[in-house]
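Thought: the user wants the 3D structure for the chain below. I'll pass the sequence to the structure tool as-is, report back what it returns, then summarize two notable features.
Action: structure_tool
Action Input:
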Amino acid sequence: MTKIKNISTFVALLTVVCTFGLLCTTLHCNVALAEGRFSDVVTSDWYYDDVVYVNENGLMNGTDSDLFAPENSTTRAMIVTILWRLDGEQKGGISTFSDVNQSAYYYDAVAWASSNQIVSGYSENLFGSDDPIKREQLATIMYRYAQYKNYDCSKTISLNGYADFERISSYAVSAFEWANAEGIITGSSQDTILPDGEALRCQVAAILRRFCEKYKNSSEVTETVNTVAAINNSGSSGGGGAVRPQATAVPTQLSTDKTAKITVGKAEAKAGDNVDIEVKIDNNPGVLGMALAVEYDMDNLTLENAINGEAFSNVLDFTSSKTLISGTRFLWDGIELNPQDIKNGTILTLRFHISDTAKEGKYPITVAYRAGDIVDNNLSNIDLNIENGGITVKN
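Observation:
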């Protein structure tokens, strides 16, 4: 089986999988369901196309030979295993959770996700592998996975239109704002989002399909493909329906897109180090005002200072929150811009201190903005692509 060894290969494979799924839907080649494989999924179900998609593309199998169990809950281990296999089944990680046995089919998946800050447990020792995953937990895991893959997670939307938005746990707010803005996780009804509700298998199927279709056109690859992944059943006993994607050569081509972009730097360091992370702008469209929120793991990283970068210094007034915590917003304001003022380069330098107890792994650092947070010299709203980064701790 061909392993997915880097992000370009993964995104290319994801493009293959998603393109094939869309083609099958267009041609009505829903083979598994047309043959009556799942007797509990019918064409009138709202999730019918989603189940077809995840099944045809190897993301989820049935719980039995002819059952999908759409109303059953999905466990935390199942979700992590699906993402782990999509990322190439990296092994070698170590799980510190006492309830994750080394013989479990999901051990390597949990170890990978934990070491890359994609998941955290209820505590340092408890993961809750077999617990039904909550909708807010699923939103957070998908958000962190997207950040881990350096996908654009900048689009967000306020959730205060939902009557139960205050029930969203603080750790999951940003994830839910992103997932809802992108249409990946929608409300459970017109006015509720049900953050503490269990994510059912039919809902997970829909979320996976939306996520796949959202990021299949990643700027890192074109849609040129000449092979389709062969899908084999994983044979795991967990009932999660995660399978191993396999693929042969998939040609990729780097994008030449010149869209305005913000890039968060990456660095490698050891526990106890101080690290500067630069946030840069490229193809500056003439930013006159901006508000950016910075998020990071406060258990392992401390933001000690934030400095206006040379691309904006002496051009835009910089204002930072007095308290530097995850989620803090930085503001830039100007009066007018001359052509010579429009520069590319560093707009913000963030100094982080890495905790002495930080474990090896990736610690994402992300920036995000809401609609209307960035304007140009004509006070017109601007959208910028964002490539997030972070710190990799290697002790």
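Final Answer: Structure generated. The chain has two domains: 7-246, 261-393. Residues 1-32, 218-257 have pLDDT under 50 and may be disordered.
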